[in-house]
Amino acid sequence: MTTITFKSVKKRYKKTPVVHGVDAQIQSNEFVVILGPSGCGKSTLLRMIAGLEEISDGEILIGDTVVNQLEPRERGCAMVFQNYALYPHMSVAKNIGYALKVAGMPKDERGARVLKVAKSVGLEPYLDRLPGALSGGQRQRVAMARAMVREPKVFLFDEPFSNLDAKLRVAMRSEVRRLHRDLGVTSVFVTHDQTEAMTLADRLIIMNAGRVEQIGRPSEVYHNPASRFVADFIGSPAMNLIEGEFDAHGTFLHGAGGRIVSDAGRGLSGRKAVLGVRPEAVRRAQPGSNGAIAATVDYVEELGASRLVYADASGSRLIAVDTGTAPLPSGTPVHFTFAEQDIHVFGEDGRRIETEASRARQQVDADDMSITA
Ligand SMILES: Nc1ncnc2c1ncn2[C@@H]1O[C@H](COP(=O)(O)OP(=O)(O)OP(=O)(O)O)[C@@H](O)[C@H]1O
Ligand SMILES: [Mg+2]
């Protein structure tokens, strides 16, 4: 049972603060992904767990133990990096078993442990090879095996697959997922790739500029982003975010004369806001149908099974996922609509504003959870 707890964790390099106070708890056996743009402090946070960076302020606990003052080797963490740095002159078996040898484990026991781990990641046929004679994916497997062989309490991954091609990355992802299922070791995985994050994570910690923006299950952060940043960061293509203001009747005014009528504006009269709608929630509508938004096609991106329609709605950009096939040349007038429950509202501070519709949706999500639980 190994939890990881962050209590107001801060990091400064010299005088420069880069992590501004992180509070979070990772459950035993959980697979948590830290996701955020380059430079937001993901690696720094991970390295503070491992003991490779000092914690400037606050506490990190592994299980019940405050680890701030512990040496890296006393923390029971194994780390897998993007640059896996294998020993080039040692065979795969020796690379995997090296840490055990250093720790003084007898040869027979070591051999058995290496073989077991190599089997679990499909490296058994390559045990006598040198790393130079392996593919990128196989080398990354050796790096994982090397981390696993020490039977750590915690696995830490820092963008381990970013050197691999797209197809191999997908394959390694399911491998990591399977290993986690089999071993059940508490794991923290850093990436800036949202697809990787969404597919791997039990829960996500989404960071921005040294702060946690949101912690939640993948479906939670997708359906109920806590901030404009998360709304924009999660989902591809990104959520439509329209800047404007609610008038006295709660109608959303945007761009040059654009009006969006919905219940989302109830109680928000006179407030500036950002209205968010996912492209996959935007539908084509008949002109003149209730609440339809008039727009003009800018261009279309074909995706195969569907296409993205980039349109201009009174000066605001609106992207829709469309399954139609009729040509939509630039300048074509179109109409769009979206369901009340698909509207997200963010205030001037960038934080989410709950509306009646969004509360109702969360209730539905919660009910779903209690059914599946
Ligand atoms: N040794 C250091 N000295 C000074 N500043 C540092 C040091 N290491 C990292 N930083 C700064 O701390 C911030 C966070 O860096 P970190 O490596 O944690 O980002 P990251 O989220 O892992 O980014 P990436 O996705 O690019 O790997 C960055 O602004 C970086 O420039
Ligand atoms: Mg990093």
Q: What strand order characterises the main sheet?
A: 6-7-8-3-9-10
What is the makeup of the main sheet?
Answer: 6 strands, mixed
Q: Mind telling me which CATH architecture of the largest domain this is?
A: 3-Layer(aba) Sandwich
Helix amount, in percent?
A: 25-40%
Looking at the structure, what is the overall shape?
A: elongated
Total count of domains: 2
Helix/strand class: alpha+beta
List the helices and strands and how they pair.
Blueprint: E1 4-13, E2 16-26, E3 31-35, H1 42-50, E4 57-62, E5 65-66, E6 77-81, H2 92-102, H3 107-120, H4 136-148, E7 154-158, H5 166-183, E8 186-191, H6 194-200, E9 203-208, E10 211-216, H7 218-223, H8 228-233, E11 240-246, E12 252-254, E13 258-260, E14 272-277, E15 283-284, E16 293-302, E17 307-313, E18 316-322, E19 333-337, E20 344-346, E21 352-353, H9 356-372
Structure in a nutshell:
The chain is of the alpha+beta class.
Q: What do these coordinates show?
A:
With 373 residues, the protein is α+β, with helices and mostly antiparallel strands. The chain folds into 2 domains: 4-227, P-loop containing nucleotide triphosphate hydrolases (Rossmann fold), CATH 3.40.50; 229-372, Nucleic acid-binding proteins (OB fold (Dihydrolipoamide Acetyltransferase, E2P), Beta Barrel), CATH 2.40.50.140. It has helices at residues 42-50, 92-102, 107-120, 136-148, 166-183, 194-200, 218-223, 228-233, 356-372, and strands spanning 4-13, 16-26, 31-35, 57-62, 65-66, 77-81, 154-158, 186-191, 203-208, 211-216, 240-246, 252-254, 258-260, 272-277, 283-284, 293-302, 307-313, 316-322, 333-337, 344-346, 352-353. The chain has a 6-stranded mixed sheet, with helices on both faces. It has a 6-stranded antiparallel sheet with strand order 13-12-11-14-20-21. The longest helix has 18 residues, at 166-183. It is elongated. The two termini are 21 Å apart. The relative contact order is 0.11. Bound molecules: adenosine-5'-triphosphate and magnesium ion. The site of adenosine-5'-triphosphate has 11 residues, from helix 1.
